[in-house]
Write a structure and sequence with these properties.
The protein is of the alpha+beta class and 152 residues long. It has two helices and seven strands. Strands 1, 2, 3, 4, 5, 6 and 7 form a seven-stranded antiparallel beta sheet that branches. The longest helix is centred in the middle third of the chain and has 18 residues, at 43-60.
Length: 152
């Protein structure tokens, strides 16, 4: 199956992750409403599950969508490689981590595998930036968010 890539320079990067970067796991079951005519999960549904995994990870780290200073993290690029098709009712394990951060953002990495078989079905890298919604522009990551996301 060919790689599906969203984003500018993402197509030039290989999705090989260091397993030590994964610090969070969550399991989700594919619902019937998420499959397409071929009886496999649709691209849109898989992208929505990636967003759900991201929100669960951020919630577990105590990071709000928008904090009291009107700042939050926004996704501005996604790279997704699908290795295997997924059917309804399959349980998927989402492993989430953060690659080393820079001043105002970084990359969240997600590996998706079959819960019981362990086969990797997809990998994703989401580029995020810290954004000041009050000033309507990117902002530096605050030290608390940096420590919560990348405590290494």
């Amino acid at each position: 199956m060919p790689a599906i890539t969203l984003g500018d320079n993402a197509s030039n990067q290989e999705l090989d992750f260091d397993d030590s970067l994964f610090v969070f796991e969550t399991v989700m079951r594919v619902r019937h409403t998420e499959i397409d005519r071929s009886q496999h999960i649709s691209f849109e549904a898989l992208t929505a599950l990636l967003c759900e995994a991201r929100h669960r990870f951020l919630h577990a780290k105590g990071i709000q969508d928008i904090n009291a200073d009107h700042r939050g993290l926004i996704i501005d690029g996604i790279q997704l490689t699908i290795n295997s098709r997924v059917r309804a009712r399959e349980e998927l394990l989402f492993e989430v981590g953060i690659e080393p951060l820079y001043d105002n953002g970084g990359h969240m990495i997600i590996k998706i595998s079959r819960m019981y078989g362990g086969e990797v079905v997809a990998k994703a890298r989401m580029h995020f930036i810290s954004y000041d919604f009050h000033l309507n522009k990117p902002a530096a990551l605050d030290k608390d968010t940096k420590a919560a996301l990348y405590p290494h």
